[in-house]
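Reopening this one. Same input as before:
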Amino acid sequence: MTTETDLDAPADTRVMGIVHKALRRDLIRATEALTTAPYPFDAQRIAIADHLQWMMRFLHRHHSSEDEHLYPLVRGRNAAAAELLESMDSDHRSIEPAMDALVSAAGSYRDSAALRQQVVEAIDKLADVLLPHLDREENEMMPIVSSTITVAEWDHWDQEYNVKPLPPLELSDSGLWIMDGLDDSERTVITDLVPAIPRWIILNIMSRRYRRAAFRRWRTKEFTSLRAPLRGRVEADVAATPEQVWAVLRDVTRVGEWSHECRSAHWLSGSSAAAVGARFRGKSKSGFMRWSRPCTITSLTPARELVWETHGGIYGDNTEWRYELEPTDSGTRIVQSFRVLSLPVWFDRLIWRMVPRHHDRTDALRGDLSRLGELAARAD
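Same output, byte for byte:
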């Protein structure tokens, strides 16, 4: 402890709830990432799968530390707690198969994006048994622990069985993961457990490593200094049928007829029609800025979906563009979305300054879809 504390006082068990909060938080994050289209691309998919497996290893150590060291201490001091302690043991045994199933599902998903739904189902099944246990442990077990053992005994358990077994790098990563998103009072509970010098290193140096890893899996603004929007989505209802829209959309050489920014495109490498793997180069203009990017079609379902990825080459920027066509009573709903797959910070700053229209492209992109629909509706 880094502050003056009465070591014979009742144990301060707040850290248990904080650890549980981190588990709940990232199970929710993972579910949202896995169930929100467009679904994670390859690098993000691998990062999420690896993180879920890491979380299960963390949870296994957490339960083992309780079962083998904390709860036996309480059992030896407090006979009245025997029934609740047996319930905790039973919970841990019932949770273990769901943890193993998530580890297996995440490993399979790491190898194949097609197995995404299996991970979602494994998370749901784990949540069914884990979340009630976490609530019961916080609300029923921890008050008994606090009244049974002292601050000194709790700290000894934490240091000997939760801190010391971990190598420094994993200890730092674990601590930053636990602190992710905490308010000031909760954050202090954790930082006060760490001596001043390693605390400064973790908060000021190692935190950058954690933010990079968190950004790889969650792709959210809170973990990056990038200013450009990382994703966007617009839609428009048009009078043309999906087949009419598709006839225009699939011919990328016509993009200049409806896009506010991409003025022209031509096929590359012998490609001459839309197909998975077909390549083309698009040329764009915004204000006085002009640029071009080679693109590769990565997914295609006629009259339903077209997806391509831009390649920035030496600039290091890659973006996925997705068009989805949904039939409506009066025509088609066109849904356009983009997500930035990679973007170096230096290039982000350049774009932010030189292409201010990219700060918010919502209205411009929605206008593109309206023009696309009008163009399609005029076709014979």
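So the earlier flakiness isn't reproducible anymore. For the record, Residues 42-77 form the longest helix (36 residues).
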